[in-house]
Every structure is written in structure tokens, then in C-alpha cells.
Inverse folding.
């Protein structure tokens, strides 16, 4: 029995192979397969989203943003892509853009994990650490379906808790927004979606 050539695969097959490659931490293969899936079907919103997630994983944040924006243009109901796009924007200190991106998530209801997490991250961006922790903890309790996202949010919550335990220091010139920025950048450090 001969295996099909990868050139004979359609967009959905390429997408599934890319997810499997990503699960095996074969980012290069996942990106190649996702690019081919997008080329085979430029309207495949999930392929754009996953390509954006892989780009974020390797630190190509501009490409990640572009792919996730394209994904939600193609499918406004792709809430995971919208959440991740907002996270990328907040990580890049584009808090206003993140708020606009995340506004559409409010339709999910105040107790939805994406809404709780985005609210917590917006509090974090404003150095409102107690409110951040409250929202992140509520989101962690509400999120029973996305373990990798919980791991990211748990990591941020732990870092906020550590920050709150440190004695207050006078802000140095040029680093007044460093705590929140550092914690948000860590959201994309060492993670897989």
C-alpha cells in the first residue's frame, strides 16, 4: 500500500497533519503544512489561526497578528483566534487595539473563560494586580476545555502573586510599565496551543 503524496492532500488533511506535527513539537513541519493548507484554501480560517499560533510560538509576532486577523475576518465566530489576537496585541503594549479585538467576546457572557481572562489581562496591563488575579482565578475555574490556555493563565497568575509579594519599589525611569509587560510577554514563552 502506498501512502498518498503530500501534494495530493486537501486543506483539511493538511490542517490535521499540521496539528499532529505541532503536537509532536515539530514546529517547522507544522508551519510548512499550514502554509500549504492556506495556499490550498485561502478561506480556511482555522488554518490561518493555527499558522498564526505557530508563528507566535517561534516569536514571529507580526506574522502571528496578521494570520489571526485574517482568521477572524474569515470567521468572526473563531473566538480562540480573537482571544489570541488580543493577547498578542496586549503583549505588544497595544492595549487599545486589544480592547477593540476582545470586545466581540463579550457576547459569550461575563462568566466565559475568554471574557474572564481578557478582563484579567486588561487589569494586568493597567497594573491593577488584585483585580487581575481575581479575574484570572475565576477564568481558571470556569475553563474546563482548554488546558494549554489554563497553563498560560496560571503561569501569569503565579507571576502576579510573586510580584505582589515583593516590596514596593519606586518606578525607575523607562520601566514603569515593566512588570505587566514582562508578565504578558511570558504568556508566549514556552507554550504550545
Amino acid at each position: 500500500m502506498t501512502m498518498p503524496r503530500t501534494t495530493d492532500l486537501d486543506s483539511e488533511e493538511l490542517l490535521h497533519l499540521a496539528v499532529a506535527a505541532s503536537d509532536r513539537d515539530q514546529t517547522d513541519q507544522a508551519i510548512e503544512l499550514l502554509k500549504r493548507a492556506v495556499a490550498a484554501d485561502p478561506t480556511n480560517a482555522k488554518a490561518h489561526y493555527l499558522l498564526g499560533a505557530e508563528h507566535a510560538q517561534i516569536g514571529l509576532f507580526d506574522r502571528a497578528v496578521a494570520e489571526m486577523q485574517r482568521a477572524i475576518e474569515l470567521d468572526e465566530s473563531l473566538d480562540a483566534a480573537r482571544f489570541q489576537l488580543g493577547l498578542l496585541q496586549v503583549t505588544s503594549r497595544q492595549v487599545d487595539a486589544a480592547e477593540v479585538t476582545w470586545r466581540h467576546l463579550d457576547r459569550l457572557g461575563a462568566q466565559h473563560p475568554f471574557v474572564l481572562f481578557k478582563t484579567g489581562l486588561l487589569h494586568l496591563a493597567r497594573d491593577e494586580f488584585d483585580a487581575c488575579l481575581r479575574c484570572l482565578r475565576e477564568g481558571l475555574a470556569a475553563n474546563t476545555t482548554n488546558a494549554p490556555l489554563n497553563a498560560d493563565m496560571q503561569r501569569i497568575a503565579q507571576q502576579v502573586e510573586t510580584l505582589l509579594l515583593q516590596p514596593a519599589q519606586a518606578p525607575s525611569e523607562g520601566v514603569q510599565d515593566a512588570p505587566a509587560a514582562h508578565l504578558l510577554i511570558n504568556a508566549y514563552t514556552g507554550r504550545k496551543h
